[in-house]
């Protein structure tokens, strides 16, 4: 049975590698695919549609495959395109040895309970040596796997723009850190008292695993709650209401260029699609009018305003909001084109990021914001 599971795990790893390499799938796509397989297996066990033993083989296989793919992603990132064949194969062989060694020790010591002496009494364990190896190998395996995933997720988070995706990645990183602590606690359990049922280390490991599960659930909800139609409609309504005053201020710049004509008095009668399209049009027209404002101001005007607002001690978002609003006021007061219009508030990489950038220009500012706005206006 043990050798069959090891063979299945290694076969799945090779299959994932083969499919990923020859189908054009990126490492990240393969990683998500194998993790989805593991999640699906666990769900089928919960609903009683899959045998526990089969599910364990599937989840262990997916776990090992995700570890291999994750290690390949780390190797590719750390090599930064300058791959040395010797280093590549040393990395891969080392990864394989670590994986096979830890998995084999874990599987060989899987059946550690011999029986129960009587109801209410402690189970009769296998030898302390077997239990020690089990806890040490399991703890080390969980720690290494969680550490690899933590490195990957934090790298993704650092290169992801602000928004729901980045926030969910931060939650996943916290989850992986919790599971890494889980592995450390099991490792300590193996060193301290491997045959005890209840110890502070076992309790700490249990708490760490529960915290990790809560964090990963929170990450899932953070990404998917915004996709619920009712919540998405509410979010679009709020965004349109926030941008409406800015749109109306900028509308006189080029009223003939507006496809909307005028904003609807109420969004209640708009369908979800019409509401979203209206919001997108408002965003596009505001950005076009901001480009015209940029041409009305001297080169470097926005950069100077941003620097002045930042020197007041305002945080990054507040400084950008204050500088942008002062910059708009100065642009509306001017009428002649004096620059190429390149220096302006930043443009988002996607619709969500662009909306966040425009909302900064429309948000009401408190006392500290007004102080930063005055400093930015003085620099203009």
Could you explain how this protein is built, in words?
By secondary structure, the protein is an all-alpha fold. The chain has 13 helices and 2 strands; from the N terminus they run H-H-H-H-E-E-H-H-H-H-H-H-H-H-H. It has helices at 2-22, 27-46, 52-79, 85-108, 128-158, 164-192, 200-224, 229-250, 272-296, 301-310, 316-332, 351-362, 367-379; strands at residues 113-116, 123-125. The protein has a two-stranded antiparallel ribbon. The longest helix has 31 residues, at 128-158. The chain is elongated and about 85 Å long. The model is unreliable at 113-124 (pLDDT under 50).
Short description:
This protein is mainly α.
Tell me the span between the first and last alpha carbons: 76 Å
Determine the strand fraction and express it as a percent band.
under 5%
Count of DSSP E strands? 2
Arithmetic mean of pLDDT: 77
Taken in chain order, the helices and strands follow as: HHHHEEHHHHHHHHH
Decide which structural class fits the backbone: mainly alpha
Defining key terms:
single chain; 380 residues; mainly alpha; elongated
List the helices and strands and how they pair.
Layout: H1 2-22, H2 27-46, H3 52-79, H4 85-108, E1 113-116, E2 123-125, H5 128-158, H6 164-192, H7 200-224, H8 229-250, H9 272-296, H10 301-310, H11 316-332, H12 351-362, H13 367-379
